[in-house]
Structures are given as C-alpha cells and as structure tokens.
Amino acid sequence: ISAAGARPLKPKPPMLSPDGQRPGHLCWHGFCAAALAILVGSAVFALSYREFAKASGKARLAAFEEITDKPRSDSRTYMWGRLANNMEVLAVQDPTSTLATFAVAVEVGAYDDPPDLPGLSHYLEHMLFLGTDRFPEPDSFDKFITENGPLSANAMTQSDVTVYFLGVSNRAANQALDRFSDFFRAPTLNHKYADRELQAVESEFVKNLQSAPHRTMAVENDLAGAGSVRKRFFQGNAEALKKTPEAKGISVHAELRKHFARHYCPARMRLATFGPAAALDQLGAAAEAFGGIPEAGGLAGKDMPPCSSRRPSYAKPNPWSLENLGKWVDILGVTEFSSMNINFALPDVTDAYESLPLWYLTFVLGHECVNSLLYVLRDVRGLAIGVSASYSTDESGAKLVLSLALSEAGRAKLQDVVDTVYAYIAQLRHEGANHALYESLKDSQELGWAWRAPSDPLSTATDLAEKMTRMPRRDILWGESVIRQLDPERVSGLLSLLAPERSNIFFIDPTPFHPGDAPGASARPLDDAGVEVSSAPYFGVQYKVRKIDEVFPSALKRWKSWDSSSRDDIVGFLARGSGGQIGEDGGGRSALLPKR
What we know:
By secondary structure, the protein is α+β, with helices and mostly antiparallel strands. It contains 19 helices and 16 strands. It has helices at about 25-55, 120-125, 140-145, 175-185, 195-210, 210-220, 240-245, 250-265, 280-290, 355-365, 375-380, 410, 415-430, 435-450, 455-465, 490-495, 550, 555-560, 565-580; strands at about 55, 60, 60-65, 75-85, 90-95, 100-105, 155, 160-170, 270-275, 325-330, 340-345, 385-395, 395-405, 505-510, 535, 540-545. α4 (about 175-185) packs parallel to α9 and α13 runs antiparallel to α19 (about 565-580). The radius of gyration is 31 Å and the shape is globular.
C-alpha cells in the first residue's frame, strides 16, 4: 500500500499480438480488421437495400436519395426515390404526426384537353374517385376516408397538372396508399356513374358563373390567339361534355379512357407521402403499392393510344402576340365596385425559380410603403383604394397582373389612373433592378424560410407532389420560396416588357352598356354605343373591345415618350397631374424608390 493508500501499479508487460508480434504489427492487423468490418457492413447494407428494394418479388425501387437542403427549423426527414417503372416518390417522415397523407401529381391538365372536349381532364379527375377494379363500388373510397379521418380526399386540375390528395389516420396508412394506387392502375371509369359525376362538374361551373375572377378570365381567354391553348374553356360543363359531343357523335366515355391511357403512365406521375413512419419504410410502401403499375400505364393495350413519357408542349401558337394586345376591354361586372386589371404578357419564367424575377417585380409594384404605386394612386391622387400585383407562368407564357380597386374619383378619371400606372412603371424602368432592394429581399426570404413553421401534413404532400413536376428533386424544398441567385439583368429585361403595347386593360363595372338605340349618354364611363357587345363562350360575360389608342387618343405616344424622358420629369408629371406632392429626399431629388 502506498503512502497515498492506493495499490502500486505493476509495470505492464510488452503488449503482444496473438501470434507473438509486437504492437506495431498489431496496429496493422487492427486496421485490416476495421477495414474488413467496413466492407462487411457495406455488404450487409447493400444486401439490406436489395431486400428493402424488393416488393412482391420484384425490385421496384431503382434509386433513392435523402434531400437535405431544408429549413434549419425543419426536423422532418425527406427521402426521394425512383421506382423501377420510372415513377418518382418523395417520402416525408415526421415522427410527431398521427396522420398519413398522400398526393399524386400527374403531368396532364386543361391544356391537354382534346379541342372538341373542353374540360375532359377535369371530368376525368372526378371519374377516378368512382371505383377501381378491386374496389368497384362508386362510394367505397369516400366511405373508407370518412371512417379513417379526420382528413379527406380531393383533387384539382390546373393548366398543366392534375393533383390528387388524401389524408387519413396513420393506422390506415398502408391500406389508404393501396386503395389510392388503384386510381392510377385500374380505374373502372364506369359509364353508369358518368352522368352523376358530370352533374358535379356542372355544379362547380354554375357556382363560378358569378365569380369575378372566373368571369374576367373567360373574357381574357376569349381574346387569346386562335389555336392557342389559352383560347380554350378549361373547366368543362354539361354542354361541353355531353350535349355538344353527343350531337357530333363523340363517345365521351371512350374518350375518357383514351385520355387516361394517353397521359396517366408512371413516368408522368409524382407521388409524395407523409407520416410518422421512417422515410425508407414509406418508400418501400410506395414501391409495393405503385410499383406494379406498368410503365405503359394502367389501361395500356392494343385498343388504347400509347402514353408518352414526356408531356406535349403547348408553347405555340403564341396566345399573346402583339395583335392580341394593346386592347381596352370593357367588362360588365357583377359586384357594386369598379375595378381595373392591367395584364402584361411576358415570356415563360418557370425556369427562374432561383432568382424569382417576377416576384421581385410584383413586390416593387404591389408593396404599400410611402411612394409606392398604391401610395401615389390612393394617398396622393385619390384614384384607387387598393392595389395588388400577381403573376403566373407556364409554357404558354407568363402574365403579370396589376389589380386596382377604383375609388369614385378613379372611376370618373380612368385616363388618369392608366397614366399614373404607366408613368410609375416608366420610372421603374429608369431605375432598373435595385440591387440593394433585391439583396434585401433575398436575405429576408432566406431568413423567413430557414425558420418557418412546418406546413400541415396535407398541404406538405400536395405542394411537394406538384413541385416535383416542375423542378429538380434537390431543389423542391426551397424552390419558389427563396431567392438563391440575383439576376438583375433578367429583372430589367422583364421590366422593359411592361409596356402599354404589350398589355391589355380590363375595366370591370356593373353599369349596363348603352343599348345603342336609346337616347342620351351612357352612364358607364368611356362606353361607346357604336361598339358591338361580345359574349364570352360558356360564361356569357358581356364585354366590348377597342384598341387602347382609340379610347385614349395620343396616349400611347405620350407613354412611350417617358422612356426617353428623365426620371425626375416622370415624377414631376405624377405630381402635376395630381396637384399633390411626391416625397423628396434631402437633395430635392424625387424618392419614389430607394437610391441604389
């Protein structure tokens, strides 16, 4: 015992390996053993992957990859996979969830409707809920969803994609996924229930007849170029899908089956799953449920048209050539308020989800700060009570829309309203893309995205499935949510296209048009009794069309001259026209926009 009370340690003998070799040799053997363990582990992992990838005796999962570019606050796991039949899947694991949700986005939409059957894609979306070969009863799926709530099932048809989605309690996840996959493998499309579901399509159409946005879009589409997809009636109704085709001898039921066969194949489908199960397990369940759908599609056969793995392009003919623009469109409204939409036709910017140039433009046109367009129209000039800016984009082109809620003064001074808008846009062109603002918006978006609250289960699956049709898998968690790359040149290029000759102005007012043969002036601003009243197909919306320079003679020349005027001259025009004052900075220079 040592003085400290501890037993003295005996010197250790030299460490020998089992074969009597010295420690240096032992380290080498240890390294070899570790390497062997890694190789064995890799082999076991590869074996487990092969076992995992097998479903019903067939390897149905061709590849998988974890998606890690996500918000910092997001604790969910995202795993992408591709099935052997070329269907892509994104599985989302949220261990805290008690729900399971699923969504399938199919690359087919209203643009794909046969010209003689407008609304067929929407009608087919409804018919897929009415039974499959294994579950033929038309209400069995709805009953299953109700029994395994608390969520529901629904679908939506857009111009270029149709999205189906559902949510159930997690205990029913695998059964729900199995039933859901049958929609795309073996739908009955039973003609016995066709009329019943067509009535549902008709009810949706009737509901939208008094919707101001739907009415305006019906007129807008009627003005599109002949032969373009924008010229079509997207929603469908009983007239378009029964009365008219029957008169032409067209079998709508046969066309429904052909439409499914032509567009519903795995390479054109994207599945998103969400639930507490491990992401790899969700991929396995997806492979089990959807992997058996043939590459050629569920209804592939000698009597059916083939399904192309790539969706057709509908970019041409151009719906908005210059001959279809530069119009003043007077629409009979259904609300008591007067409004104005100014639509600018632009090239498709779907590929610009990293730089979001149109998002930048909608911000600078729609924000509500001092010296904004709203400030000038509402607070300085008293012409409007609200301003918003929005955009949409697809293969047929992009559209930026300025929506103005007019005041009584604005309704009485429509030319002042239009002058103000085009003057404001002209001074934006002089300013160009404001780099400091663009950078600030980028930082703000990135911060908001990094710490945002997670979306709800059903929205998560639905949004991800739809985005998978438009962007690479590694970008789908952030694409269109943040600006990752500044592109001021593209912003300036788009800004140069916000020109009067590339726009259509829609004035919506509830005052009836002048009948033409009645005495006295029209109570409707700028109404011309000599202009014929047109009617939008199916919706029956009354409207009149004239060229802008017929309504405002010499205005186009003035608006164009602003591009060669100084920025201060334009701001001075706004101030003089209103009799008010535009804000100035300390040096007396107008401060409608921040300096760069």
